[in-house]
Amino acid sequence: MLPRAREVWLEANEKFFGNASSPHRIGARADRALSEAREKLGAFLGCNPEDIVWTSGATESNNAVFHHFVSSARAGAEIWTSSIEHPSVLAPARKNFAERHCFIPTTHEGVIDLEWIKRQLPHERPQLIALMAVNNETGVLQPWREVLELCRESDIRFVCDAVQWIGKLPAKGLGDCDFVSGSAHKFGGPKGVGFLKCSSRHPLRAMICGGPQEEGRRAGTENVPGVLSMIAALENREAALMNGEKKAKMEGRERFEQKMLKLLPGSEIVGEGSQRLWNTVSALMPETDCQQRWVVKLDKLGFAVSTGSACSSGQEKPSHVLTAMGYDSAESSRVLRFSSGWETTESDWEALIEALVRAYQEISQREAASPEILAHQNQFARSGPSG
Ligand code: PLP
After folding, report:
1. Nearest CA to 326 among 116, 141, 102, 105?
2. I want to staple 332 with a disulfide (CB 3.0 to 4.6 A). Which of 47, 81, 246, 318 is the partner?
3. Rounded average pLDDT over 374-381
4. Euclidean distance between CA atoms 29 and 220, whole angstroms
5. CB within 8 Å of 155: residues ≥ 6 apart
6. Closest CA to 182 of 141, 234, 129
7. How far is C-alpha 261 from the chain's CA centre?
């Protein structure tokens, strides 16, 4: 959590402990704080404050969208989602729409096939199209603005899971989408709080019932400290983006990738040719007998990395994102994902390179390292991680 977000959370527990729905002054104070937070988020996204519903996070927000549409969809209408959406979109889409849920294909570079949509739309009109702003596994940016435009032309509702975009790229313009989901813990806020932007012109059919909160769109006492802390985190991130911090982050990531490709023969960046977020690197590691060893070795060296597999009911399955991009299961099992943060420095990236090289040598049990690795290690020994 960002220090400022933590501070605001603690303060809010003292200052705004009232229930925002209560009629007394303490409750009204909390309600006013929530209204101010709505104004701020509306300004960042570019939408009416009344369009915002506070939720427990993006999983809830995404579920709420499909719950809303299943009862309002035209009989027999299809819905389209990209094949690389987060499970919190794919599962409710499948649950609510079953065989009426169609997938937009993805290219090997990890971007959805925009041409496919353009070819299909003259013949079919889905009830909604859902496309994430940035993929969470590859960091590849998706053409959500172009798809929003196509939806507008054909009077189709557009749903954007913007969890990975918000706080890392400017939020402005997202408010034009019919539905947008966001989650505080992805940009330095607390866990268990998020939002759904939904147009107040088309009232949301509540998924969680049993109270009048959020204009009847989401029942349950609002998490005032969580919301205020989330907005403080977003203010902080948006200010950093205005100060151009993104450029330096991007350069750090690119230098890391170039070094990795040079020092680990056989490694490959997933979605290398696409525009990608500055904080995510998804890469195929060199082939070795047991890929899980990378995770264990890197963990011991102080790096928590993710793999290209999803663990479901104890069984490792290739990630649906990599499968949609055309990677086979052997290739998917070689994938590691590295995520950096705002605090990540050049020497952190350098230390990760050192750890990867060390893990690689141990895994492949190479007596003699490649000349590139030896040269790199000599330089590292002379100048330290930031050299
Ligand atoms: N959507 C995307 C793209 C995500 O990356 C995540 C979380 O990782 C979610 C949705 C779910 O968000 P939450 O953890 O707030 O439920």
Report:
1. 105
2. 318
3. 60
4. 18
5. 125
6. 234
7. 25
The reply to whether the predicted model has a pTM over 0.70 is: yes
The reply to whether 311 belongs to the active site is: yes
Say yes or no to pLDDT of 373 above 80: no
Report the residue among 163, 168, 207, 282 best suited for mutation to probe ligand 1: largest number of ligand atoms under 8 A from its CB. Answer: 163
CA 353 to centroid of ligand 1, rounded, Å: 28
Distance CA 272, CA 327 (A): 14
Q: Under DSSP, is residue 242 helix (H, G, I), strand (E, B) or coil?
A: helix
CA 101 to chain centre: 22
CB 286 within 8 A of CB 178: no
The side-by-side arrangement of strands in the sheet containing 335-339 is: 268-269, 280-284, 335-339, 306-307
pLDDT band, very low/low/confident/very high, at 245 (cuts 50, 70, 90): confident
Q: Among candidates 44, 13, 45, which has minimal Cα distance to 30?
A: 13
Helices 245-263 and 371-383, axial angle in degrees (round to 10): 130
